[in-house]
Amino acid sequence: MFANTSKYALKALHYIAVHSSEEQRVLAKDVALALELQKPFLSKILNQLSSKDFIQSVKGPYGGFYLTKEQKDRSVMDIIVELEGRDSFSQCILNFENCNELNPCPIHKLVAFEKESLHTAIQNVRIADLQENLNYL
pTM for the complete prediction? Predict the structure, then answer.
């Protein structure tokens, strides 16, 4: 459903939310190692999130990444849209270009309610909600 970029970003944000603070920042290499992701790709994602103010980045020997209270209040959907450049839920499930309420594809009406419900649910998930330790790390 989501691109790997969004999946990796959300995993990384979960890790950063659980393991960091302003005083105890985490390094990209530590996040990559913990999540078994390639550091160059993860670093690119983290830098993109930092440039759009989704996470804080501090350079230098005591640098790393962490989240502020305001950043933790951002919606997970905002991150997905920022990274993917689109809202996956507004796209046709069959990838028809012109599918919409006025010009529906054959299954549009079957999935429209579920897509909207899922969109709303994810829109309501905040980065802070990712702080729950899900025991997969």
Answer: 0.82
